[in-house]
Amino acid sequence: MREQYDDLILIYSNKEDGNMSKKYGLEADSNRKRFIAKMGLELNRFLLMQADNQDHVVELKEEVIDTPDLYYKLVEADAIICKYPNVFLYLNFGDCIPFTIYDRKNHVFAFAHLGWRSTYLDLHQKLFSIFREQYNSRLSDLMIHIGPCIKKESYLLSTPKQMEEEKWKPYISHVKDDLYSIDLSGYVRDFFLTSGLSESQIHIVPVDTGSDSSYFSHYRSTLTGEVEGRFFFGVGME
Predict the structure, then answer these.
(1) CA proximity to 173, closest of 156, 193, 194, 185
(2) Domains, in order of start, for the chain
């Protein structure tokens, strides 16, 4: 799938494109290359992000991207801010939120991995503050994109850590026994709505990776024993 908003391009794969993580198969590299070509983009403009499930933010430096073998490099971060055109950040996902915040006037975006821990640490709020304070982003110029991820209907946990905090109560529902559903994407969405963005500025892919068998899901694989894998999500500016 390929989506575009002004000069921002977002691409993401599904199971038909194959597993994209080397951890789950040696075919991952060839699958990535084939998918990037399918999307009509140049392989050596892609830079891998390696997340640590924290709230570590990195601003991409020109010396990192000024290299002939960018595809074979990686940057360790939970979020990367990029102001350079024709540089695509990517990561492989299996339920966590592929998150993008984009300033269409200043031509800068941030790409983040929002797992339960980085969402609990409010990484999305941290990025919003950076854009507002360091890039002087106006609310009307911002766009939020939430890619395919596990939704509240599928994400059930036993006594989740979020129960300890009052602000999470609207996003936790008791299902049965000690199981609770967690609405991570709703928590992220509502922060931006209450911060002044309109619904038209927030794009949420409706795919629930926990229940949609056309996408890889770590959560579902632990329940069903199905072969595990990861799908590709990348974002960059023209």
Answers:
(1) 156
(2) 2-151+200-237 (3.60.140.10)
Q: How is residue 52 annotated by DSSP?
A: -
Give the residue from 176, 28, 188 showing the smallest Cα distance to 97: 188
Cα within 13 Å of Cα(161), Cβ side: 7
Q: Give strand pairing partners of 53.
A: none
pTM (two decimals): 0.97
Question: Which alpha helices (H) appear in 106-178, and where do they start and end?
Answer: 116-120, 123-134
pLDDT, one tens digit per residue, over 72-97 is 999 999 999 999 999 999 999 999 99
Residue in 89, 122, 93 with CA at minimum distance from that of residue 21 = 93
- In the three-class reduction of DSSP (H, G, I as helix; E, B as strand; rest coil), residue 88 is classed as strand
Name the nearest CA neighbour of 193 among 236, 137, 142. Answer: 142
